[in-house]
Amino acid sequence: MTGVAGMTALVTGASKGIGRALARGLADAGAAVVVNYKTDEAGADQTCAEIAARGGRAWPLAGDLATETGAADLIEQSLRLAGGLDILVNNAGRTMFGPPSAVTPAEWAYVMDTNVRGLFFASVQAAAHMTQVGRGSIINISSCAATLMIRDHAAYTASKAAVEGLTRQLALEYAPQVRVNAVAPGPSLVERNLEYADSYAESWGRVIPMGHIADPATDLVGPVVFLASDAARYLTGAVLNVDGGWSLRGCTPDMAIHTYDSDRQRG
After folding, report:
1. In the annotation, is 156 catalytic?
2. CATH value of 8-265 in 3.40.640.10, 3.40.50.720, 2.60.120.330, 3.40.30.10
3. Of 19, 82, 158, 170, which has fewest CB within 10 angstroms of its CB?
């Protein structure tokens, strides 16, 4: 895929997991990539090193979207580093899984500030630049949890439902110069998820029609590169469920096998 050759991209939360895979995938497709991270500088450096080793260009950039000025600062610094911004991938997110009664007001605010407020203001700031130059693509990473209720996901589900609403609203506001779409993954093969249960991949794979959870590098990169490219030039306001057909069924494994201690302690 070379549909984004010569473009510049910012991927938030790209020091690990899905964000790292998307940053590498966009670079493989020809984009220069700004790799955002909050605290994991070593992880962002590794992402950039992997991109460089594959012949691409990337820059690490610290920034916390949950802060008052974090989103605006991040876009401004990205423009300065890369010299432009054609693609914004809003991937950074917080989870804070657990029973609704266990979610504190501070945790609720942290999830919403990162997943919704940060995404909104980063998108607005990026769209201002993209509108000025006459083109751009914003891709929000949602989740099938936005529409299929999963036990212990209250704050996360609310935030991702907001992400999908904002995707449609911003698509309307910024057309025709800027396209805004979302990808909603199902359970994915990332380190954080594997911490929830020893049998995470196997137990979720059994309820997914395709028979396995998503590998971000092989299952999520293609849809994101497509949405970023001119091949999707008439597509805006869409939410693509990239979930192996899980949203067709919506059933979950026994959630009692999951533990969220590491999730709630993660900064």
Report:
1. yes
2. 3.40.50.720
3. 158
